[in-house]
Structure formats: structure tokens, C-alpha cells
Design brief:
With 337 residues, the chain is an alpha/beta fold. It contains eleven helices and twelve strands. An eight-stranded parallel β-barrel has the order 3-4-5-8-9-10-11-12, surrounded by six helices. It has a two-stranded antiparallel sheet with strand order 1-2. Helix 1 crosses helix 2 and helix 3 crosses helix 4. This is Aryl-alcohol dehydrogenase-like predicted oxidoreductase.
């Protein structure tokens, strides 16, 4: 399959911006997935822009600011006007790369955005969102603080990440929320029960991350691959011995369906997410131009009812082995309660 120079477009929720039907998640270019090539990261962002990608997702804690500065370098000149920049904030890190909770206090929100604007070299952030719910701060206070930033022109739209249906309702009552960023894939389908219907009722879009489950269902994972110490998949339950072997067996079943459609496993998995509704924008975490070039055709891959049935048979929702995060991290997710 070949790429198209112009991707289809979708709108983030009822009140958000129009964006490309696939977005690019930038985390892996700076953090958590082992060594990354900075020059290749910039080149991949440039290639994405040329192919019509407009949505770029980062976080102020990705590489402790490195990822925002990488995006700044990639968007120098007139490229910034072609990008919708989505930023997550609030996750606290230490010099060793550890995690120290979430800070969503209003005064912290304004501090975080000031630093992000400087690192990004921009006058505004298109979509700004807390990375996780802070259990010590009412969501109304956090959204209210971002709403003040919207009024001041520093932020254009408000999003959320990994929150449950009740939190969505409370946030929407304060200010329009354009999208919920949350994990959604063939093997991570928890949002289908209550969160997705609530988002649709409220006119809130979904930006789906983890659509390839961190490479697990990309079709490229090698059973004997050794992970480096700075790759967090080394502590991910789905990559543990036993679980990994069972999950990769599911991928081989999916490969048969993909090949029948003349697609790769990754393209089929991404297209499945996109097929769940026009209010969903998959984020692909491509770190290289080669992986980006493979992912982009998924935006134009139309799946028939027969295709969807075959995919479901190959990779049933309940067949995955292991949770999407380690137990301690799952406890911190408002979306899981």
C-alpha cells in the first residue's frame, strides 16, 4: 500500500479543531522506549507534515522537556502554522527519570504552561491537558485554571487524559472539553463500556494512544527481543514471559487477516481503531520515517463488516494476557475506577 499526500480529516469533538485522521505521538522520540535518534525524530516530524499529518502530541515531562524542544526544532519557521500541538502536563519527574505523582493545582498549571510555551517557542498551545487526574485537586479547579489560560490566549482548547466518565461530566460542566486522550486498541478496549458512550453524549472526541499496544501488535515484535534498561516495556505485564508468547500468537492470527487485505498488521490494527467512529483519532507513535510510512495508509483503509468480523475472531477483546500497565500504575488511573 502507498501513502497519500493528503490525509482525511476529523474534528476533535464538537468544539475542537479539525485535524488529520491520524496523529503523531512523540513520546518515543525522547523517553521510555530505549535509545532514540534525535535527527531521525525531527525528520519523521517533517515527513509527517509533508504527508498531511497535523496533530502532534507531546508532554512537558517527555524526556523532562526534551520532547517539547525537539518539536520546536521540527516546527521552526512556517511549519508551526501547519500543526495542532497537543501538550500533557503535571507528571512530576526526578533527575533519574523516576515518577513522583501528579500536580494539577491551578498555580502549577500556570507554571507548567509558561515553561512549555518557552520550550515550544510558540505563543499558544492548541490543546492542553493534565496527563492524569490529581486525586488531591478537584477537576473543576484544574479545568478552571486552564479555562483562564484559554481566555488569556495562551491555550486554545482543553483536553483530558485517562479519566473516567464521572470526571468527564464534571469537567465539561466547567468548560467545553474537546477530546479525551486514552489508550484504545484491539487489546485495550476498556473505554467501550462507559467512557466512550459518555464522551459521545457530551460531544467529546477521543484521541487514542497505544493503538499498537507499544509495538506489541505492530507485527514487528520479535519473540526473543531484549529490552534495554530504559525501556519501560520491561515492566509491562503484556511483555512478560508467558504473556508475551500468548499475545504474539494473537498477532499471527491477525497477520492472516491483514495479508488477505493486502495490508500489514500495523495498518490493520490502526484502521480498526479509526473504524470505531469518526470521533476517534488514532495517535501513532512512529519514531522513524519508515514506521510512519507504514502507518499512514491506515487512514485510508476502509474495513468492511466482513473484515471487522475476521479481526474480532483473530483477536477477541478478552484474549489479551496481562493488563496494560503494572498494578501500581493501574491504581492511579481514574479511567480504571
Amino acid at each position: 500500500m502507498t501513502t497519500s499526500p493528503t490525509l482525511p480529516v476529523r474534528r476533535l469533538g464538537a468544539t475542537g479543531p479539525e485535524v488529520s485522521a491520524l496523529g503523531l505521538g512523540l513520546l518515543g522520540m525522547s523517553d521510555l522506549y530505549g535509545p532514540a535518534d534525535e535527527a531521525e525524530g525531527v525528520a519523521t516530524i517533517h515527513a509527517a507534515l509533508e504527508e498531511g499529518v497535523t496533530l502532534f502530541d507531546t508532554g512537558d515531562f517527555y524526556g523532562m522537556g526534551h520532547n517539547e524542544m525537539l518539536l520546536r526544532e521540527a516546527l521552526r519557521g512556517r511549519r508551526r502554522d501547519r500543526a495542532v500541538v497537543s501538550v500533557k502536563f503535571g507528571a512530576l519527574r526526578d533527575p533519574a527519570g523516576g515518577w513522583n505523582g501528579q500536580d494539577n493545582r491551578p498555580e502549577a498549571v500556570k507554571n507548567f504552561v509558561a515553561y512549555s510555551l518557552r520550550r515550544l517557542g510558540t505563543e499558544h498551545i492548541d490543546v492542553y491537558r493534565p496527563a492524569r487526574l490529581d486525586p488531591n485537586v478537584p477537576i473543576e479547579d484544574t479545568v478552571g485554571a486552564i479555562a483562564e489560560l484559554v481566555q488569556a490566549g495562551h491555550v486554545r482548547h482543553i483536553g483530558l487524559s485517562e479519566v473516567g466518565a464521572g470526571t468527564l461530566r464534571r469537567a465539561q460542566a466547567v468548560h467545553p472539553i474537546v477530546d479525551l486522550q486514552i489508550e484504545y486498541s484491539l487489546i485495550s478496549r476498556g473505554i467501550e463500556g462507559e467512557i466512550l458512550p459518555t464522551a459521545r453524549e457530551l460531544g467529546i472526541g477521543i484521541t487514542a494512544y497505544g493503538v499498537l499496544s507499544r509495538g506489541l501488535i505492530s507485527g514487528h515484535w520479535q519473540r526473543d527481543r531484549k529490552l534495554t534498561a530504559d525501556d519501560f516495556r520491561g515492566v509491562s505485564p503484556r511483555f512478560e514471559d508467558g504473556n508475551l508468547q500468548r499475545n504474539l500468537s494473537l498477532v499471527e492470527s491477525l497477520r492472516e487477516v491483514a495479508e488477505a487485505r493486502g495490508a500489514t498488521v500495523a495498518q490493520l490494527a490502526i484502521a480498526w481503531v479509526a473504524a470505531q467512529g469518526t470521533d476517534i483519532v488514532p495517535l501513532v507513535g512512529a519514531r522513524t520515517r519508515a514506521r510512519l510510512a507504514e502507518a499512514l495508509p491506515a487512514a485510508s483503509l476502509t474495513l468492511t463488516p466482513a473484515d471487522l468480523a475476521a479481526i474480532e475472531e483473530a483477536m477477541p477483546a478478552t484474549a489479551v494476557s496481562g493488563s496494560r500497565y503494572a498494578p501500581a500504575m493501574m491504581e492511579l488511573l481514574d479511567s480504571e475506577h
